[in-house]
Amino acid sequence: MTDGTPSTYGTQRKAAARNRVAIIEAAHELFAQNPLVPLSEVAKRAGVGAGTLYRHFPTREDLILAAYQHDIERLTTTADEVLARQPSAKAAFIEWFETLAAYIRIKHGLGDALHSAAAQDVITASWAPATAAVAKLVDACVAEGTIAPGHDPADIILLMSFLWRVANDDAGAAQGRRLVAAVFSGLQAPPQSV
């Protein structure tokens, strides 16, 4: 339109984009509570009808993958924020990995939906941004002296994977803290060459 009034099509696109985000946010919250939550509950929490949900996400798997991808994308962009908020790089490193562990626990609870080829593509695509975020955290820890230089961020992700394997209860949290302390003891030494 030439009078400066937004087009109906543009308004509909903005509404559709808002609905998509609302659905993904609702799915994130509800899948964290119960990975088997009915999609009707997701639609209700998002404030949309079932038809709107299914227009955006024709299958449950589509929604699960979108929510997982959204969570990982959001997490990988928070390394700087966590570093700025925490009193030390080590504390930021631990907080970031604990958040990642919580996302991955949700992922494991989603079962078969994350074993498809499409899911593997999403998971593979998240590897590079996650590694870049960990590299920022590692660099900050190196600068502070809590990690020796030379450790590969991809190796550290694999090393820290114990966090999403410990029990999701008080005993698991205590075990996780003990293991994090052991990891930092090991990372204070330079990496061994192969």
Overall description:
The protein has about 190 residues and is mainly alpha-helical. It has two domains: about 1-60, Arc Repressor Mutant, subunit A (Orthogonal Bundle), CATH 1.10.10; about 60-194, Tetracycline Repressor, domain 2, CATH 1.10.357. The protein contains nine helices and no strands. The chain has helices spanning about 10-35, 40-45, 50-55, 60-75, 80-85, 90-110, 115-145, 155-160, 170-185. It is elongated and about 60 Å long. The N and C termini lie far apart (about 65 Å).
Structural class designation? mainly alpha
Strand content: under 5%
Strand/helix succession: HHHHHHHHH
Gyration radius, rounded: 20 Å
- Tell me the distance between the termini: 65 Å
Poorly predicted tracts of residues? none
CATH class of the largest domain: Mainly Alpha
General form: elongated
Count of β-strands: 0
Q: Report mean pLDDT, rounded to a whole number.
A: 86
The profile of the biggest β sheet is: none
Q: What is the CATH T-level topology of the largest domain?
A: Tetracycline Repressor, domain 2
Total of helices: 9
Q: CATH H-level name of the largest domain... which superfamily?
A: Tetracycline Repressor, domain 2
Total number of domains:
2
CATH A-level architecture of the largest domain: Orthogonal Bundle
The amount of helix comes to over 70%
